[in-house]
Amino acid sequence: MKILYFHQHFSTPKGSAGTRSYEMARRLVKRGHHVTMVCGSYGGGHTGLEQPFEKGRRRGDVDGIDVIEFDLAYSNAAGFASRTMTFMRYALRCIGLVLSEPADLVFATTTPLTAGIPGIAARWLTRKTFVFEVRDLWPELPKAMGVIRNPLILWAMGALEWMSYRSAHRLIGLAPGMVEGIARRGIPEPRIAMIPNGCDLDIFGTASEPWRPQGAEKGDLLAVFAGTHGMANGLDAVLDAAAELRKRGRDDIKILLIGQGKLKPSLQERAAREGLNNVVFGDPVSKTRLSGLMAATDIGLQILADVPAFYYGTSPNKFFDYIAAGLPVLNNYPGWVAGLIEENGCGLAVPPRDPMAFADALEKAAADRAALKEMGKRGRRLAETTFARDRLADQFVDWLEKAQADRR
User: Fold this and answer.
1) What architecture is the 2-198+388-407 domain classified under in CATH?
2) Strand order in the sheet with 329-331
3) In this predicted model, what pLDDT tens digit does every residue of 283-339 receive, in sequence order?
4) Model's pTM, two decimal places?
């Protein structure tokens, strides 16, 4: 079948952004389907297209995927109004493709929530099959974080969420809390599947040249956070732990924060102001380059702000990258991911807002490197048996094929 796949932040492994849509589209193509991926230009992402834009867009084949990229640059460092305008312009241009591009099925994935708009149009204007993937619960998360407080905006977001769920023939949630959130909106459970983020075993399981950043010596314990530096990530908790380690004189424990985001400058300013020489900042890197870093890292940091909506409502890419690389994981919030770590013995879980417990965990890791390696092996085993990308991609493709079969 012909599939229109809408993901504004699409990226190949050459970028530093998540590659779920790239991997799922490749599996759809392998199964014999034609996929047209529609995206914008995302900071840190790499769509695979290099030619100049013509009339605001460019199009080409990327590993068998027909990619249409709009000249709509997006950065999470931009202000709310600017980001909202970019989201709406993308959604409106996607509606034009729904009306003009031949397709049997339309698939849309958040974020942003406005990704659901072309799916709604596909369902009601062209009667195409619509499958909607939920990566974050809106407006629950921004409301819980206090990012959006205007009641009118929250109402509009809630209405769009409701319309997207109700218009979709089938839905996908990436975490248990997302599936429950969709069901609370009155969607029958047989129409919802949980297909979490997955582990790219071929990227992180192959031999890559190990490397460490300047400032992290060979004998140091190296703890790495690889991801966005934004409000949701709560990276001040890492700096709090670094300050505690500095008090204890543990200069042999280094923390690397690699990525980009709106709060990165303020985090760097704080680290410089407090003399936190045990914290190193790095620019985003491609998945291949990240694989080499993971090969020289001792423990991966899975960090989020202490927001209860996150506990069961996230499916973080970095966690799956860590375990794919055979890294133990240090997690600082309760819920689904902490449960996976504890049940499988593949890392350490500490309570939120507790820099002493965080520092204790890093000291414990530094004191027993052999135990740390065993945790990493158990994490890799979890990646292979439960979260291998091929396994989850098969579920994904089956779900879309069943959605189309049901319509027929």
Assistant:
1) 3-Layer(aba) Sandwich (3.40)
2) 279-282, 253-258, 221-226, 299-302, 329-331, 347-349
3) 999 888 999 999 999 999 999 999 998 898 899 999 999 999 999 999 999 999 999
4) 0.93
